[in-house]
Specification:
The complex is a heterodimer. By secondary structure, chain A is an alpha/beta fold. Chain A has helices spanning 5-13, 41-54, 89-100, 102-106, 124-139, 149-155, 182-195, 239-244, 308-321, 370-383, 397-400; strands at residues 31-37, 59-62, 78-79, 117-121, 145-148, 170-174, 178-179, 199-201, 206-212, 215-221, 224-233, 253-264, 272-275, 280-284, 289-300, 330-340, 347-350, 356-360. In chain A, a hairpin with a 5-residue loop joins strand 17 (347-350) and strand 18. Chain A starts with a helix and ends in a 16-residue tail after the last helix. In chain B, the strands form 2 sheets. Chain B has a 4-stranded antiparallel beta sheet with strand order 3-4-5-6. A two-stranded antiparallel ribbon of chain B has the order 1-2.
């Protein structure tokens, strides 16, 4: 069924009786050409692009819970292409271009809103760094505008410009940055993949990966064995556990990242804003809630909830930057489990097992990467060659010293 | 979350700096192959369950601690001094 404004009106006139489920609920077949482990944003987009770009439709996505129940539903929905390093820059640029055509491509409203992203800076040194980053973004073909203090005031008059502790020197505006509706991204890709013949199999946990003589043969699941010619592990949040089934030890430590949302308010924050002196970023959802977050809790964790010290820290940073939000009531908070890699960049690569591929290590930047990650993972699985914009996301780059350390903080998993 | 430092007693999590997994205690020797360094710096077991990791009592006795805890429940079952352990 194709969605359209006309369809909404005609269904409204006839009692909304004509809507059909957005995807099927098939039982797993005994064999597929490709099995994708993980029904989150990246897994679903991988399946979608396998079908759409490469004509590979005999595909199953295996999800242990429900579609989109992991990190794609547990983030702060920021979409941007403001990376600096070659390797990251072209990848996120490609992803943003895919975002810009996503709704038409999927025939699904993912509520992608390019409202502009402003990264604030608070010292001369930070200004220099952001000017350099902005130039890198422009060189990549994306957009960046360096704002001085008065330029920021025009966009964000509600910031505390009078404070002396963290004076606002200016900001880097990325006009094409913004946000999207997180669940809708998963649902849109799920619907698009299903329509092209992909089986989306929920409540199906992978318990083992079958390997014979160095070649993958399929997977064992809670719903029986499934044979497959190729298997993709796309399970950020549980990558170490699933990769261990294939005898791999990954360069990943899992950390919890908290996020928060307030009660719904009238429109007050029109951009995505990040504070440069305390890790804090905020936007307002279309429903009105202020969605914001900060840094990791800093210790390895698989609990989808954090501790109070980081809650306090995030609230303090928010209050320092924009005291007006102190009147809003926090409605709920949650934690997502981040695959933290030692350089802060992801992995899209083959493994030591023939036919077994790995997409992981998204740190806390996975949401905006959903389209390009699926695009590049599908390309890798279909052709056996890395896509040109993801060619530096190699699994062995840590051993060979070709790190993509965007923040320059060194080989400590929680510092990125 | 609270950790019980062997020297200072039970203290708030904010007094401690988290460094990483126990692997950081096993620094490769001189002339070790590169794969040993990869293991030491980058690769992790990363269990969802009981793990051992290194914490520094930054706002207390300035001792390095080896903490045994559960990454799913945040339960802490053991804290020992790295300095004592090396003896």
């Amino acid at each position: 069924m194709r969605y359209s404004g006309l369809k909404v009106i005609t269904e409204g006139l006839f009692g909304n009786k004509g809507w059909t489920p957005a995807w099927r609920d098939p039982a797993p077949k005994a064999e597929y050409d490709v099995v994708i482990i993980g029904g989150g944003g990246h897994g679903l987009s991988t399946a979608y692009y396998l079908a759409k770009n490469h004509g590979i439709t005999n595909v199953a996505v295996l999800e242990k819970g429900y579609l989109g129940g992991g990190n794609v539903g547990r983030n702060t929905t920021i979409v941007r292409a403001n990376y600096f390093l070659p390797g990251n820059s072209e990848f996120y640029s490609h992803s943003l271009k895919l975002w810009e055509g996503l709704e038409a491509d999927l025939n699904y409203n993912v509520m992608h809103s390019q409202r502009g992203l402003i990264n604030l800076f608070h010292s001369d040194g930070q200004r220099d760094a952001f000017a350099r980053r902005g130039n890198a973004m422009i060189n990549q073909g994306d957009d960046a505008i360096l704002l001085d203090r008065e330029g920021v005031r025009e966009h964000l008059p509600y910031l505390d410009f009078e404070q002396t502790r963290f004076p606002i020197y200016g900001g880097l505006l990325h006009p094409r940055g913004g946000s999207a509706r997180h669940d809708a991204v998963a649902w849109g890709y799920a619907r698009g993949a299903d329509k092209r013949g992909v089986d989306l199999i929920q409540n199906c946990e992978v318990t083992g990966i079958d390997i014979e003589n160095g070649v993958v043969r399929g997977v064992q699941t809670t719903r029986g064995a499934i044979r497959a010619k190729k298997v993709g592990i796309v399970v950020a949040g549980r990558s170490s556990q699933v990769a261990a089934m294939a005898g791999m030890r990954l360069p990943i430590e899992s950390h919890v990242l908290q996020a928060f949302v307030t009660e719904g308010l009238k429109p007050v924050i029109n951009h995505v804003v990040s504070f440069g002196m305390g890790h804090f970023y905020i936007s307002q959802s279309d429903k009105g809630g202020l969605v914001f977050g900060g840094d990791l809790d800093f210790y390895a964790s698989y609990a989808a909830r954090g501790n109070l010290p980081m809650v306090e820290h995030v609230m303090e940073a928010g209050m320092t930057l924009m005291p007006m939000i102190g009147r809003a009531k926090v409605l709920r908070s949650w934690g997502g489990i981040m695959d933290m890699s030692p350089d802060g960049s992801p992995v899209i690569d083959k493994t030591h097992v023939d036919g077994l591929f790995l997409d992981c290590g998204w740190n806390y930047g996975g949401f905006k990467a959903v389209p390009a990650s699926g695009w590049c993972m599908a390309h890798l699985m279909a052709t056996g060659e890395p896509h040109e914009v993801a060619r530096k996301f190699r699994l062995d780059r840590f051993a060979t010293g070709h790190l993509l350390d965007e923040e320059g903080t060194g080989s400590q998993h929680n510092l990125h | 979350m609270r950790l019980t430092c062997p020297l200072c007693g039970e203290r708030d999590r904010r007094e401690f700096y988290y460094y990483g997994a126990e692997d950081f205690l096993h620094r490769p020797g001189e002339g070790a192959p590169l794969s040993d360094w990869d293991n030491y710096l980058h690769l992790r077991d990363n269990p969802a369950g009981v793990t051992k990791d290194l914490w520094y009592h930054e706002a207390g006795c300035a001792q390095w601690l080896l903490v045994t805890r559960n990454t799913v429940t945040h339960e802490i079952t053991g804290v020992e001094l790295v300095a004592e352990r090396a003896k």
